[in-house]
Write a structure and sequence with these properties.
Strand content: 5-15%
Order of helices and strands: HHHHHHEEE
Number of strands: 3
Radius of gyration: 20 Å
Distance between the termini: 38 Å
Oligomer: single chain
Length: 147
């Protein structure tokens, strides 16, 4: 079961780091579902996430191989694999945060959380005082709520 942690921990770190620290909880929900939306990145791959994933998985691979075939000697790498979840999570989070700080994905930044593409109806809002601004462009209207 611990073999899954070498992949799951870095994936969790990328998701948490991207939402909470890089985008600071400001995302466009409709753009997440568009095949050619702002979160597509180049060729559909976020290179920052891919580099962080490779960096955090590589030190755990000898332990993963040893868990499949114990006759393969790997030396001290088995100790890193024994805490693969913690190592994978924090190493991936650190690498992803550094790469996102040095080369920020500016195209994906939005001023606030965008919930829908429909015309905002202030009468149907549960908390109209939370609505800070409404941005309009030539094609759609977005309701932006600042947190």
């Amino acid at each position: 079961m611990s073999n899954y942690t070498i992949l799951l921990a870095p994936i969790c770190a990328i998701m948490i780091g991207d939402f909470w620290f890089v985008h600071r909880q400001r995302v466009s929900i409709p753009e997440m579902y568009r095949p050619r939306g702002i979160y597509r990145y180049r060729y559909g791959i976020n290179w920052r996430a891919l580099v962080a994933l490779i960096v955090s998985i590589s030190p755990n691979m000898p332990g993963f191989i040893h868990s499949i075939n114990a006759s393969i000697p790997i030396g001290g790498a088995v100790y890193i694999f024994s805490f693969a979840w913690l190592f994978g999570f924090f190493s991936c989070l650190l690498v992803y945060m550094v790469l996102s700080h040095l080369w920020p994905p500016r195209r994906t930044f939005v001023p606030g959380t965008i919930y829908d593409d429909r015309e905002p109806n202030t009468a149907s809002l549960d908390h109209p005082e939370d609505e800070k601004s409404v941005e309009k462009d030539s094609t759609t209207t977005h309701r932006v709520v600042s947190v």
